[in-house]
Amino acid sequence: MSDPPERNRSVRAGNKTGRYFKYAIGEIILVMIGILLALQINNWNAQSKSKRSAEIQLSQLYQYVADDLILLRTLNDNTLTNLVSCQRLSEQFQLIKPFDSLTTSHIIDNLFERNFYTNTTAFDKLNQSGEFSILPKTLQSEITLYYNLLNRVKEREEISNTFIKKDLEPYYFDSYSMYHRKGSNKHPIISDYYKDDRRKPIELDIEKIKNDNKMSTLIFARYYQLKNQQLLYKEAIEKAQLIKKVIEDYLNFTNV
Q1: What share of the chain is helix, strand, coil (3-state, %, to 5)?
Q2: SS3 246
Q3: pTM assigned to the model
Q4: In sequence order, what are the residues at sequence separation of 6 or more whose Cβ sits closer than 8 angstroms to the Cβ of residue 129?
């Protein structure tokens, strides 16, 4: 006995509804997959763009570190020269070596301030954009340590420069300005500036200077300031060399 026509129509309608439902679910799944793929592609594009931007800033940072290295080496060399001059002057005040025609020149050497300047533009951009976090942790750590060290270098310079401006320089001009002329001070800068000076040279008052306890103490302080300054320059030079190498390895530089 066959099923009633109404039942057959109901079964066929149910089958159609089931197929439509399956199609709808399939379409929804396809749409969701498409959306997820689009989001993943957009995310990948954004990450790729950020990575490229970070590498551009890192390349710029590399150049700034290279510039830092040139200045740091110059400052280090100049400070080493000052240290030698300061040591000789200290030995004279301790009567280990006699005062001579270069005594006032040695004092002038200790009046020069040292200033280190660095360009932090690339480092600042990396931090402000959030792209710094894209870099490997070891690279982030080394770069951060480097710029922290440069802050210490500048802090040490400020301590020394303040000492020169507030203590050493005023005392020099108050007590030793009479030697600031041709023949009395053989420092190259003084000799060049006073090359046409017609005043008579003033002979160094040995008895007075060897009992100048204040200048002796100022030179003692200057020696240790220079020593600490030079050690920081040396440390910064080594760190800058390391930073360059780490960045080269990361960016796969072949011709640097």
Answers
A1: 80, 0, 20
A2: helix
A3: 0.80
A4: 50, 53, 54, 57
